[in-house]
Specification:
Low-confidence stretches: none
Number of helices: 23
Structural class: alpha+beta
Shape: globular
Distance between the termini: 48 Å
Number of domains: 5
Strand order of the largest sheet: 1-2-4-6-5
Radius of gyration: 29 Å
Number of strands: 19
Strand content: 15-25%
Mean pLDDT: 81
Amino acid sequence: MKILHFPLAKISLAFIIGIVSFQYYKPSPIWVFGSVLFCVFLLLVFHLLSRTKNNFKLIFGVLSLLTSLLLGVASSIIHKETYNSLHYINQIKDYENQHLIRLVINEKLKNTQKNTRYISTIRSVDKQQSFGKIILNIKKPNQIDSIKIGAELNVIGMLYKNKGSFNPNQFDYGKYLENQEIYAQVYANETQINIVGTQKTIWSQFSNFRTKIIENLALSNFKKEELNILIALLLGQQQDISPEILKDYQYAGAVHILSVSGLHVGFILMFITFLLKPMSNSKRNAILKLVIILVSLWTYGILAGLSASVVRSVTMFSFVAIGIHLKRTVNIFHTLVVSMLLILLWKPSFLFDVGFQLSYLALFFILWVQPLLSNIWQPKNRIIQYIWDIVTVSTAAQIGAMPLSIYYFHQFPGLFFITNIIVLPLLGVIMIIGLIAIIIACFGIVPFVIAKPLEFLIEFLNYIIHWVATFEDFIIKNISFNKEMLVASYLVIIFSVLWFKKNTFQRLFLTLLSIISLQCVFIYTKFKAENTDEFIVFNAKKHSIITERKKDLITVYSNDSILENIDNNLAIQSYLIGNFCKIEEKKNIGNLFYFKNKKILIIDSSSVYLEKTKPDILIVINSPKINLLRVFESWKPEQVVIDGSNYKSYARLWEATCRKEKIPFHNTNEKGFYKL
């Protein structure tokens, strides 16, 4: 791959390895920064020596990669806010009492059924200087649904630290928040909140200006759903899109158009370039054009919220604009690498953002694979050529993003190419009219002659998306796919493309070897799944779910209301997909289980049990009125487990009893699922 001949590509790869390694190993900052300084000193020494002797060039290259790796670790440490003693995580020791928190609203999040939510920055805790990002949850109903970005609040409430996933193979929301430097949430009602002022920053000014644009669009008599799609398409705000519409876009393989990315920013660049065409190409005007383009791109990026994909797109197209201005041939691969390195230097945690990963992979494969697909057939008809270009671009993007998309979302939209053929031309028209509407909305209400055609086009877009999404037989769901299969799949894709570009025996051998590797990974995964037995007590709020696994078959135990919809239960579905299993039986929970020479007794709300049972493990569900101390007089189990169906007050009493009797106690509400 020629891109690897670009020195900065190797440096970027080493830098990324450094960022990833920091997630698994947390080395001492002193050791890391000392190592960086030492490596920089050696680099200077060997750089001087390599001028006289070529033998030192290899050592200099290896040292450069090692330094890049260490810089990746160092950058992660610098951006890790919890290393600072003033961070609220290091200051708050008591999480069981309320605190007086002064914070500033940064960003509006999608509301839940119970709460209005904002990302906020802490300024002080209990009148002591502090900092760090937190999620503010305001209980509904409330009269303060529209707090402006930049508003400074005094909040009295309890902080709840992030917790990991409480059930096997489930999405770890706590880890997701941690990657965004959010370590806790605070819950309050409107009586516990007092707005004390407003902080005017560039970010808050842009955010409130975006709110003004949205308000003007709303006053232009757009229908609610069409307005929400327009706001997502052009301003990157998806918070108010209904779950049904979002589901249609996912099933149709068009959800990417709702996130502002390279497609949108590239169009903005072309639109601005078109508007600036009448200006003469004098040296002074060329510089002015470049400044206008860069300011416009970054202004749009800030208005769109500066998400990972927006930052990536704006940074990359900024380099493209600079390259065009300098009248040099812009190597788009180099631009891609430079933009990625700059973004990760600014914010290393973007590397773990799904949108960032998918957008870079999709764009890389479009640039690398699309020309190969395009050369397979060269239609003479312009319309057919246009359709063929859309197909090849969509296919190249899907080849690159498909394994990662399946790994994260466990589904694949089979009709993505049909969606793109129909949608992309329509999207271009919507973008043109939409940009005009946004510009007008900066100053006032959008005229009827612009608003109504735009509304009709978006309504037509939604209709097409919904129509494609109805072909559910073409949507492959619940695909089991682990990390090993992900890596093996990309090896197959990369070596296959390399062999397709140049048919040599060596590349054919590597392609076949990668295919065999994927097959071996699949066989090993299947073998492991068919040789595993597990007994799991899940954490389900106000309910009890227990599974018994024998090889790749699962028996689910719960009450009738849960068993009726168990196929749609997220906890069970995540477990089935993550472990390559399927449900064999659904049963009501009994009182006695035997698993691998362990006798398991379940006491439910009836509080009935046999004193002579003498179980190895006691599971308590549905808040029975029992005195564990009296139970332990007859026998003492090896372990006591309680699930999320029990009252918290009961759980505290039982835990105190187990601690007194020195019996291990497992509360799924605090420790997550229990597994044998």
